[in-house]
Every structure is written in C-alpha cells, then in structure tokens.
Amino acid sequence: MKLIEINYPIGIAEAEGVRREINLQLLPQEEIKVGDYVIVHVGFAIQKMSPEEAEETWRLLKQVMEQRYA
C-alpha cells in the first residue's frame, strides 16, 4: 500500500483505490514518509518497499488472481 498520510504511529494507506488506517509502529518513524510503499499485514505496516517492488508485487498478484478465476 502507498502511504498517503502519516500521523505517527497511525497512517492512511491506499491500494487499488481502497484506503485504510494502518499502524506504523513496527517501522522506525524516521524511515517512512508520505509516498512510500509498505507491506501491510493485519493492519500493521511490516516492511517498506521500493516503488518497483510494489509494482511487481501488484502485477504478480493480479496474474495469480486471473489464473485462479480463469
């Protein structure tokens, strides 16, 4: 998900048009900023990732979903 707002330790993240409030406490405050991509699990940002990694992850997830429902 892409961080669109930060009020540490809470943030708002968006993916595919869906916005969610997420907890950022597992990532150091000084290492995250608006516009960063993070992996979110059960409401917690657990890892920061590059824009390229985020794009590739979405591509692979979409591919899996297409094959599953084909």
Short description:
The protein is an alpha+beta fold. It is built from one helix and five strands; from the N terminus they run βββββα.
Structure description:
There is one protein chain. Helix content is 26%, strand content 41%. It contains 1 helix and 5 strands. It has one helix at 51-68, and strands spanning 2-7, 10-15, 18-23, 37-41, 44-49. The strands form 2 sheets. Strands 1-2-3 form a 3-stranded antiparallel beta sheet, with no helix packed on it. Strands 4-5 form a two-stranded antiparallel sheet. Strand 1 and strand 2 (10-15) form a beta hairpin.
List keywords for this structure.
70 residues, alpha+beta
Tell me the helix content: 25-40%
Given helix and strand content, the structural type is alpha+beta
What order do the strands of the largest sheet run in, or round the barrel if closed? Answer: 1-2-3
Summed up, the helix count is 1
Mean pLDDT: 96
Strand fraction band?
Answer: 35-45%
Principal-axis shape: elongated
Name the poorly predicted regions. Answer: none
Distance, first to last CA: 26 Å
What is the C-alpha radius of gyration, as a whole number of Å? 13 Å
Question: What can be said about the biggest beta sheet?
Answer: 3 strands, antiparallel
Instruction: Write the element-wise H/E pattern from the N-terminal end onward.
Output: EEEEEH
Number of beta-strand segments = 5
Oligomer: single chain
